[in-house]
């Protein structure tokens, strides 16, 4: 195996390992925050896209999503007067 290829693979491996470490760290932090945070996050996601069922926390995001992802679909009436 050419040396440069091996070095490249080793570098890629290191990257993956540090990503896994970060993911573990974040998971630990999430656990500490507890259930209230989870419930709040769930309650905040109140806008569900009528086309693809993606959930969004506010009408502005919803409108931006709708205009970029479903430009051919008529805007839902509740979004007509949202300033995006
Ligand atoms: Zn959508």
From TrEMBL:
Start-end of Basic residues biased regions: 22-33
Subcellular compartments: Cytoplasm; Nucleus
GO cellular component term of the entry, any: cytoplasm
Residue intervals of the C2H2-type domain: 47-69
GO biological process: negative regulation of DNA-templated transcription; negative regulation of stem cell population maintenance; regulation of translation
Domain Small EDRK-rich factor-like N-terminal residues, every copy: 9-45
Keywords of this entry: Cytoplasm, Metal-binding, Nucleus, Repressor, Translation regulation, Zinc, Zinc-finger
Predominant subcellular localization, coarse grouping: cytoplasm
Record field: compositional bias (Low complexity): 10-21
Keyword Isomerase: no
Alphabetical list of PANTHER family matching this protein: GEO09665P1-RELATED, ZINC FINGER PROTEIN 706
Official protein name in the record: Zinc finger protein 706
